[in-house]
Design goal:
Layout: H1 2-15, H2 22-46, H3 51-82, H4 86-152, H5 160-168, E1 176-181, E2 184-185, E3 208-215, E4 218-229, E5 232-241, H6 244-250, E6 256-261, H7 267-272, H8 283-297, E7 301-306, E8 320-330, E9 336-346, H9 348-355, H10 362-410, H11 425-467, E10 478-485, E11 493-501, E12 504-512, H12 516-534, E13 540-541, E14 557-558, H13 568-582, E15 589-597, E16 602-608, E17 614-616, E18 622-624, E19 628-629, E20 643-646, E21 652-656, H14 658-661, E22 664-665, E23 668-669, H15 672-681, H16 687-702, E24 711-718
Parallel strand pairs: 3-8, 16-19
Antiparallel strand pairs: 1-2, 1-5, 3-4, 4-5, 6-7, 6-9, 8-9, 10-24, 11-12, 12-15, 13-14, 15-16, 16-20, 17-18, 17-21, 21-24, 22-23
Helix pairs in contact: 2-3, 10-11, 11-12, 12-13
Length: about 725
């Protein structure tokens, strides 16, 4: 039952449905809870249980939370899928480095151009209004000077220049002019309709005044001039309504102009603008609607629109809409207040014609220069895009090849190489990778060979371990023990205990020159030779001769004698002859051989260049067994001496290799004396325990360093 469940989980995980992150698990749990509450709500609503209404809020809240969590999960998964490839990462990087800044600069340029175009359109309108105000101010000042001169001479206030203006300037047909002498209206003779002032006298303003004013809810271009002569003061005011007719003239070659103002037009004005006039209401109805009507009419609202938006000349000739406030002065109290707004809607083509109207045909040249610059910039952008694409493909292609190569290495295919087609840093990286794979391939082969050698060494170690004595036959008067620990896998040291007969024991201790396999092979040769020459029935020398005399190529063996009769010195001579003939010149061995006769406790020995074994007496006496000769196998025709010593009860025979006494640390060598002291201090312990104490002391002396040489220790104690 558990196996199908695991298979289903694996399939869901492969399909990406199984939630793996904490957010995903929370999202799925909340989705399940949301669906449960939704079903519960429907069931309660079906049975008309009031609790269903309270579940609606929870369902809505959980739905929103689930939507947010799944949006986060979708974003993470999309980011993981999208940004896994290096090419996509570079594209996103280029977007943030190049595209987004260019887009921001383009947006900034568009906003700047749009603001400039809108401001320029408003500048055209406001400059036209300002020019009209300046014209009105200049004419008003001239008329004021003319009237002042006539009044001062006692003549009737007639403005002859005004009649000329009305005949030659159509703008003055819409303008009105009034005069006051010391705040009293001054009838202008000869001006039709000017017997009474059409507007109130000006507030306290500057002697020369020109501005847009709000008078009784209407906007006017108005100029006032005040002159003082004698004790009298003359004020002349000229006014032109700021209405649709005026803005139609301005908007004729510009576009559409809409005027917004904080005014409450009269019913007649509304009717004149084309709005339907409502029937009069009763005072009660008017009182009820006064507050609403006032609130509805408060604030800026469109008064009228003049002109029309010109047709588009192309796809980029979009409408530009921009507004600018108009400084308006309240004529009743003289306060300056921005209570009007002009909105201008035009097109770039119209503004371009207005801007370069003075250039004439040169404007076409400007267009061609701009078009040529745009083409050059576009070509440069395309060229940069092409170069960026090529460089990106170079980088991503190299990374893809490296990734593919790592997959080959992961499968164990070290023969795969990356093709190198350039000479840049990525090519150097590919060459380094190829060199690395070649080195790894070679290393793997060497590791395989090393493994084979280690296996062979392990077999050799097992074989060599069998060469050392496995079961030692102890004599009644002599107990023996041997220990050997190789510095490497196999050892070049040698020791052996060989029972010649029931009361004789052969002891052998040796050290082969060198380490490793060659020393182990030579050790095996000496082991087999010693046993062969020492076993009963082994042939010995044919004619009587001195010990070791006549050794060499002429040495002959005779059958019928017994190996137990071969002395240690003779045996060393035989071994020297054999090793010299069968080994290279640089190969030799140190070897100590001794025969113990239990009948008389006599130890007959010969030392072939080995470290002299030591006899330790119970009284502290130390005797070294040095009689013998040089090393075995280095020189031809060498004879060896032998000597005998009687072992007393309690004396200890100690033989060792240089791996025991020669290890060094900061205090020097371990030394022979330290070895003697250890054995003397523990002489009453079992021989194996004495061996453990000595080897532990040697290990402590070496410390964490590598064991420099084979450690061999042979102990015998007379009893």
């Amino acid at each position: 039952m558990q196996l199908p469940v695991l298979s289903l989980r694996w399939r869901l995980n492969q399909a990406g449905i199984l939630p793996t992150s904490r957010v995903a698990r929370v999202a799925w749990y909340l989705l399940g809870l949301d669906l449960f509450l939704f079903v519960l709500q429907k069931v309660l609503a079906f049975f008309k249980i009031s609790a269903s209404a309270s579940l609606g809020g929870w369902v809505t809240f959980l739905s929103l939370v689930v939507i947010v969590l799944f949006a986060i999960i979708a974003f993470r998964r999309l980011r993981t899928k999208l940004l896994w490839r290096l090419r996509n990462r570079l594209i996103v990087t280029y977007v943030f480095i190049g595209v987004i800044p260019v887009a921001l600069l383009g947006a900034m340029a568009f906003i700047t151009v749009y603001l400039f175009a809108g401001q320029f359109a408003n500048f055209v309108v406001t400059s036209d209004l300002n020019s009209r105000l300046q014209s009105l101010e200049a004419v008003n000042a001239a008329i004021a000077n003319e009237l002042a001169a006539r009044v001062e001479r006692g003549q009737s206030p007639t403005a002859e220049s005004l009649e000329g203006l009305k005949r030659h300037d159509p703008a003055w047909s819409r303008r009105k002019i009034c005069a006051w002498s010391d705040a009293k209206p001054l009838p202008l003779s000869g001006v039709a309709g000017q017997d009474e002032a059409p507007f109130a006298p000006p507030p306290s303003v500057s002697p020369q005044f020109a501005a847009i004013v709000n008078d009784s809810g209407k906007l006017h271009l108005r100029s006032a001039t005040t002159l003082s002569f004698g004790s009298r003061k003359l004020t002349v005011v000229s006014s032109e309504p700021l209405d649709r007719n005026l803005l139609e003239v301005i908007a004729a070659d510009l576009g559409e102009i809409t005027l917004y103002a904080m005014v409450i037009p009269s019913m007649a004005d509304v009717a004149s603008e084309g709005a339907p006039v409502e029937e009069s209401k009763t005072e009660a109805e008017a009182g009820q609607d006064s507050v609403v009507t006032k609130r509805e009419r408060e604030g800026l609202r469109p008064i009228f629109t003049a002109g029309s938006l010109p047709p588009s000349t192309g796809i980029f000739d979009r409408a530009i809409t921009f507004g600018t406030p108009l400084p308006v002065m309240n004529w009743a109290n003289g306060q300056q207040k921005a209570a009007a707004l002009l909105r201008v809607q035009t097109r770039p083509s119209v503004l371009y014609e207005r801007l370069f109207a003075a250039l004439g045909d040169f404007a076409k040249g400007v267009e061609y220069v701009l078009l040529f610059s745009a083409i050059v910039f576009a070509v440069i952008e395309l060229f940069a895009l092409w170069i960026g694409t090529r460089l990106t493909r170079t980088v991503t292609g190299a990374v893809a090849q490296l990734y593919k190569a790592t997959e080959h290495i992961n499968r164990g295919d070290f023969s795969h190489r990356i093709p190198v087609k350039s000479s840049d840093q990525l090519a150097s990286l590919a060459n380094s990778f190829n060199s690395m794979t070649a080195s790894i391939e070679k290393l793997v082969e060497e590791q395989k060979q090393k493994q084979r050698l280690e296996n062979e060494l392990a077999i050799a170690q097992e074989v060599q371990a069998q060469l050392f004595p496995q079961h030692i036959s102890q004599l009644a008067s002599l107990e023996v023990y041997g220990f050997c620990r190789p510095a490497r896998t196999v050892s070049g040291d040698y020791y052996d205990f060989l029972t010649v007969d029931s009361d004789k024991l052969l002891l052998a201790v040796g050290d082969i020159s060198g380490k490793g396999i060659s020393a182990a092979l030579l050790m095996a040769t000496i082991h087999s030779a010693v046993r062969a020459y020492s076993l009963e029935g082994t042939p010995i020398l044919r004619e009587p001769m001195a010990v070791g005399a006549g050794g060499g190529p002429g040495l002959r063996l005779a059958a019928g004698a017994h190996g137990g009769e071969v002395s240690p010195a003779t045996l060393l001579s035989l071994l020297n002859h054999q090793l010299y003939q069968s080994t290279p010149l640089e190969k030799y061995a140190t070897l100590f051989l001794a025969t113990y006769d239990e009948a008389d406790r006599n130890l007959t020995y010969s030392n072939g260049g080995h470290l002299p074994p030591i006899i330790l007496g119970e009284d502290g006496r130390v005797q070294r067994l040095e009689c013998g000769g040089t090393v075995v196998g280095l020189f031809e025709r060498r004879s060896y001496e032998e000597a005998s010593i009687q072992l007393r009860r309690g004396e200890i025979f100690l033989a060792y290799s240089d791996g025991v006494t020669e290890p060094e640390n900061d205090f020097g060598e371990f030394g022979e004396q330290r070895l003697i002291d250890l054995v003397q201090n523990n002489r009453n312990l079992p021989l194996n325990r004495i061996s453990e104490i000595v080897t532990s002391a040697v290990d402590d002396w070496i410390g964490d360093k590598e064991q420099p040489d084979d450690v061999t220790l042979v102990l015998a104690r007379a009893r």
